[in-house]
Write a structure and sequence with these properties.
- This is DUF4240 domain-containing protein.
- This protein has helices spanning about 20-30, 35-45, 50-65, 70-80, 85-100, 100-110, 120, 145-155, 160-165, 190-195, 195-200; strands spanning about 5, 15.
- It is an all-alpha fold and about 210 residues long.
- The chain has one domain.
- Helix 1 (about 20-30) packs across helix 2.
Length: about 210
């Protein structure tokens, strides 16, 4: 990936690769804690760099989704949300997990049961979803749009990034393409077998009626 201006007030644009993509995301968490303000920080920084580099950011983001777009991760997200994880919710959960940083995202990708080690997941465990504030929910829909909005701001062309991605041979996904063997993510037995640690941290209250 070419260049992103990482510093809050930096004047020098530096060449970056995928490691710098992650550092850029992690820097945004240091600058802003509220999800909307964090996304705005990212959009503002991206809008100040070359268009090709904005496209690179989107490609890196889409690539980061793939290892966590799995049935086991869907089951884990559904467990954390006490059975309230729809397809859209899982789509927004993925950028939230990416937003936790490279270390935690990759740790969870190795085994979704490792989500128990993620500090932001642990912070949700002492309350039920109905008690979470809007900013607490493990969703970060806004991250999906930061590159597109930054591209629009630079060009004045709505969704212009899609044409630029197409020219690079890349198609931006719009919903989960969940990989792996399907399973009933509402099954108590399957949850215990696949996600034992997470199941202890988030015991389900809400199960489908028989």
């Amino acid at each position: 990936m070419p260049a992103i201006e990482v510093g809050a007030s930096a004047r020098t644009v530096i060449a970056v690769d995928v490691a710098d993509f992650w550092r850029f995301l992690e820097r945004s968490a240091e600058e802003e804690t509220h999800p909307q303000r964090r996304a705005a920080w990212l959009e503002h920084r991206l809008s100040r760099i070359a268009l090709d580099h904005i496209v690179d950011f989107q490609i890196h983001l889409d690539a980061a989704r793939r290892p966590i777009d799995t049935w086991d991760m869907l089951g884990a997200a559904n467990l954390i949300m006490d059975g309230l994880c729809s397809g859209d919710s899982f789509w927004y959960f993925q950028p939230w997990l990416i937003g936790q940083g490279r270390r935690w995202c990759q740790h969870a990708a190795q085994d979704p049961d490792n989500l128990v080690d993620v500090p932001a997941v642990q912070a949700l465990a002492d309350r039920r979803p109905r008690q979470w504030a809007d900013a607490d929910w493990p969703h970060w829909e806004d991250l999906n749009a930061v590159a597109s909005l930054a591209y629009d701001r630079r060009t004045g062309q709505e969704d212009g990034i899609d044409d630029a991605l197409s020219e690079r041979g890349h198609r931006r996904p719009a919903d989960p393409q969940t990989a792996g063997r399907t399973w009933n993510t509402d099954s108590a037995a399957e949850i215990e077998r696949r996600l034992p640690r997470l199941n202890r941290l988030f015991p389900r209250e809400r199960y489908p009626r028989p």
